[in-house]
Write a structure and sequence with these properties.
The complex is a heterodimer of chains A (508) and B (198).
Chain A (H helix, E strand, L loop, with lengths): L50 H9 L2 H23 L4 H17 L1 H14 L3 E5 L2 H14 L4 E4 L3 H5 L2 H7 L3 E4 L2 H8 L16 H11 L9 H17 L3 E4 L3 E3 L4 E6 L3 H7 L3 E7 L3 E2 L5 H13 L6 E5 L7 E7 L3 H4 L16 H5 L1 H6 L10 H11 L16 H5 L6 H14 L5 H14 L2 H17 L2 H4 L20 H8 L9
Chain B lengths: L2 H12 L21 H11 L12 H10 L4 E3 L24 E5 L2 E3 L4 E5 H4 L10 E6 L4 E2 L2 H4 L4 H4 L2 E5 L4 E2 L7 E2 L6 E6 L6
Parallel strand pairs in B: 1-2, 2-5, 3-6, 5-10
Antiparallel strand pairs in B: 3-4, 4-7, 8-9
Classes of the chains: A alpha/beta (508), B alpha/beta (198).
């Protein structure tokens, strides 16, 4: 089998002064002002999350907003540079999308194939319908092995499952080993981004968290110092943990392998140090063949961080000598989502976060403003599948500019699905009251042309003469955070009536 | 029904009845005559790896001197001697006090500057992570062009553990400031040395 020609590996060597790897920034960024960290969305039982309210508080912290915006936009630009260096980039996106859609439309087959091959290699395979069953399976494994402390690497699935809280209540100490995730754990806060969990925090925020929880110098916010302190404090916990847990980025049915990508090597430490190894894996992660894997590995880190590959791409196909390896395959709503005609392709997501980095709403409001496990554009289309009521306002936190769709490495039509969710939520009466009233009034106006024209002329005239407090108030959301444009001197219809060629009728 | 059966039944009931054939994945080979060694060197440095300058000296002598300068060293290669011996039963956590480890990579990948280390290369997998520094020997004849070629290698079908390491442990989780040695090795140094048995 001969292949298509690839790009020239000897072209465009990187500048030696710019080491574009891991999540490092390619431009000097640093915060200069100490400022209280804005916290995330208010969680109030099953009430709908008010993302806009939390976003306003984020914007009211200008140093946080500026750094967050600059940092994520830099990641987006690093991604673009990687994309331009690969001639076959669009081929890879097309292939990734086709492979995922094939795998999802044959998901039962590939799950069974993975299970059979993994078992043949000595892996114990468990199945969990939901978060509760996932947590119960792992707790029972930990109790069987008398585990007191579990070390783990970052996994969005375990965030979905409320794993840390559950283990804390069950008397098991859980230690996150990814720096960003560890910061979030010590601050008792959820990750704000799927790839860079503490990106919403400034160095001064981290210094305060570490001073409070690890006893570091509260006045030293040097990043090298903070990172080294975390290494020194976490290492002893890793060395005498009795179990290690990772997630998985990809699962290869053909070989029974699961693949974990990290920059810190913390997944390899978590998996290889204790004798009991566990992996929590969503059922949508499976791909058919080994030859499909490079398509995704080539896209993942380039899309996420603008780095050619993560520092560590680790492949687990069986237990270590003298060790035990358990895989928990978790559904937690995925099989239901598979049946949603408009939304099933959201299961193609490889959790790179590119849609977050490019999203103007996400960059200026911070991931915690969404009050959900998944933030940003991908969150807007996944979260309502978990809880349609609580996340009913999230699909409105988008400008529908389509940038998320353009950068998605597996070509999910994210912005179209966001629009689709708005429609579904309107049809199932999950719209917030204010939007409902506005939509009903707008619908009435738009279906009656004479009324519409009269209203527009009145509104334009009114805008000219109304005092500011009438335009910029709580009820007019379009006046929040922006200046309403100056109204035109005349409406189009007035202009047309004056200038239309004679003998032609009223425009329709 | 068990959870397994429930999940599979729901997947069967809900999976879209759409024709979605599995595509053939090309190899995307670079143009004929591409200098793979040069491409590997460039990518390896970009990923934060170190290629020590050996000048006119034998690279092995340079590597040996590095190892000799460290209090605790552990070598998995016959060309270089360390002072910590591993056995198949060495507890993984006991490698934490090693200052420098030495391993030979199964192969390298020019596209990404990655080296493949397997459970056989490492003997105890934590040798790739717990030492403060890691030296990797790579046979320049064992460099494949890109990841498509890399995944054609036999290691993926025989090993229980194999990793593509691309530079040292790195993080920039705080304000994007890149720091090496987040949890794993602080430096990854590479020497091009042909394998003794070809």
């Amino acid at each position: 089998m001969s292949g298509a020609q690839g790009g020239d590996l000897n072209r465009n060597p990187p500048r030696p002064d710019r080491l574009d790897h891991a999540e490092g920034a390619s431009v000097p960024l640093r915060s200069h002002v100490r400022e209280a960290q804005p916290r995330g969305a208010v969680i109030n039982g099953n009430h709908p999350i008010d993302q806009a309210e939390a976003a306003e508080r984020f914007i009211a912290a200008p140093e946080h907003e500026r750094m967050h915006d600059a940092r994520l936009w830099d990641l987006r630009q690093k991604r673009d540079r990687q994309m331009h260096g690969i001639a076959e980039w669009e081929d890879l996106r097309r292939l990734a999308s086709e492979i995922k859609e094939h795998a999802l439309t044959h998901l039962d087959h590939y799950l069974e194939q993975f299970e059979a091959n993994a078992r043949a290699n000595g892996i114990h395979v468990h199945w969990a319908q939901d978060a509760d069953e996932h947590n119960a399976i792992i707790l029972s494994l930990l109790r069987d092995h008398s585990v007191k402390r579990l070390i783990k690497s970052k996994s969005m699935l375990t965030e979905e499952c409320g794993f840390r809280d559950f283990m804390a209540e069950s008397g098991i100490e859980v230690v996150e080993t990814d720096l960003g995730e560890r910061i979030q754990q010590l601050d008792d806060e959820a990750p704000s981004h799927v790839v860079v969990p503490a990106v919403h925090k400034l160095r001064s925020d981290v210094a305060a968290v570490f001073a409070r929880t690890l006893g570091t110098d509260p006045d030293d916010d040097d990043v090298h110092y903070l990172t080294e302190q975390q290494r020194e404090k976490t290492r002893p916990l890793i060395l005498d943990a009795q179990a290690g847990l990772t997630g998985a980025n990809f699962v290869v049915a053909e070989t029974g392998t699961f693949v974990v990508c990290t920059n810190e090597g913390n997944a390899d430490l978590s998996a290889n140090t204790p004798s009991l190894q566990i992996a929590s894996i969503g059922i949508e992660k499976v791909i058919p063949r080994l030859e499909d894997l490079p398509v995704f590995v080539r896209l993942l880190s380039r899309s996420a961080l603008g780095s050619p590959i993560t520092q560590y791409t680790s492949h687990f196909r069986g237990p270590r000598r003298g060790g035990e390896l358990h895989v928990v395959l978790v559904d937690n709503g995925r099989s239901e989502r598979l049946g949603m005609e408009q939304f099933w392709t959201s299961l193609k997501c490889i959790r790179c976060g590119a849609c977050m980095n490019t999203c103007p709403v996400f960059r200026r409001s911070g991931g915690l403003s969404y009050g959900a496990t998944y933030a940003g554009p991908i969150g807007l289309i996944i979260d309502p599948t978990f809880n349609r009521h609580r996340y009913s306002s999230l699909p409105f936190s988008s400008t529908l500019n389509g940038s998320c769709t353009n950068v998605c490495p597996v070509r999910i039509n994210i912005h179209e699905q966001i629009a689709g969710w708005r429609k579904v939520l309107a049809e199932t009466h999950e719209l917030p009251l204010m939007k409902k009233v506005m939509m009903r009034e707008a619908g009435h106006l738009l279906s009656h042309p004479a009324l519409y024209r009269a209203a527009i002329a009145t509104a334009d005239s009114a805008l000219k003469h109304l005092p500011r407090f009438m335009v910029y108030n709580r009820l007019n959301t379009w006046g929040h955070g922006r200046e309403v444009p100056a109204p035109p001197r005349q409406t189009f219809h007035e202009w047309y009536a004056k200038n239309r060629p004679t003998g032609q009728g009223e425009p329709t | 029904m068990s959870s397994r059966e429930d999940i599979l039944a729901r997947v069967r009931a809900h999976k879209p009845a759409l024709e979605r054939p599995l595509p053939q994945v090309p190899f995307f080979d670079p143009p004929q005559g591409t200098d793979l060694l040069a491409a590997f060197r460039t990518a390896f440095v970009q990923m934060g790896g170190t290629l020590p300058d050996c000048g006119p000296d034998d690279p092995l002598d340079v590597a040996r001197a590095m190892v000799a300068g460290m209090p605790v060293s552990c070598s998995r290669v016959p060309e270089i001697r360390g002072n910590r011996v591993l056995t198949d039963d060495t507890p993984p956590a006991s490698l934490a006090d090693i200052d420098i480890g030495v391993v030979r990579a199964s192969f390298g990948v020019a596209e990404t500057g990655s080296v493949c280390l397997t459970e056989v290369d490492l003997q105890v997998n934590t040798l790739g992570y717990l030492p403060q520094h890691l030296i990797v020997l790579l046979d320049p004849a064992r460099i494949v062009s890109n990841l498509h070629r890399a995944y054609q290698r036999p290691e993926w079908r025989s090993m229980h553990y194999a990793v593509l390491q691309s530079g040292p442990s790195a993080t920039a989780d705080i304000e994007g400031v890149l720091v090496h040695g987040a949890q794993g090795v602080r430096s990854l140094r590479l020497f091009f040395i042909p394998a003794p048995n070809g």
